[in-house]
Specification:
4-stranded mixed beta sheet
C-alpha cells in the first residue's frame, strides 16, 4: 500500500492482493514507515460494517499521533473491489480550516518505467495501449 500526503489530503493506493485482503475476512491492510528504532508512522485502511440506518459515509480517517487509520464501509469496499472503478473519495470536516480529502485507489502499473518503482501486483493501466 502506498500513502501520499499532500496538503490537506491523504491518498492510499492498494495492490490487487491488498484490495482482496481489505474485501476479505481480514478486512484490513496496514504498513509503516520507520524513521528510527523507536520512531515510526503507521497507516492502515480498515473495512467496517456499513451503518444500518442513515446515509453511508464513504470514508473517515483518524490520527492518533503515531498512525493514520482510514475507515471504509463494507458496502463501499465490496462494490469498489468487485468493479472496474478506480477509487472512491470523501471530504472530512476537521473543524476550522480546510477539510481533509481522503482518496482510496487501486494501484495501476506505470506507463513509464521509473527507477526504484515496482509494478508488482498492480492493476492493468487502462491507458496502456501496447
Amino acid at each position: 500500500m502506498k500513502l501520499r500526503v499532500r496538503g490537506s489530503s491523504i491518498r492510499l493506493r492498494l495492490t490487487r492482493t491488498e484490495v482482496e485482503r481489505l474485501r476479505g475476512a481480514e478486512g484490513r491492510v496496514s504498513d509503516q514507515v520507520r524513521f528510527g528504532p523507536q520512531n515510526l508512522l503507521s497507516y492502515a485502511i480498515v473495512r467496517e460494517p456499513s451503518p444500518s440506518t442513515g446515509p453511508t459515509p464513504l470514508l473517515r480517517a483518524t490520527f492518533d499521533g503515531a498512525g493514520i487509520t482510514v475507515f471504509a464501509p463494507d458496502s463501499v469496499v465490496s462494490t469498489w473491489a468487485g468493479s472496474e472503478r478506480v477509487g472512491f473519495d470523501a471530504e472530512q470536516s476537521v473543524g476550522d480550516g480546510p477539510s481533509l480529502r481522503i482518496l482510496v485507489e487501486k494501484d495501476w502499473n506505470c506507463l513509464t518505467a521509473r527507477e526504484g518503482e515496482e509494478d508488482v501486483d498492480t492493476f492493468p493501466n487502462p491507458n496502456l495501449t501496447c
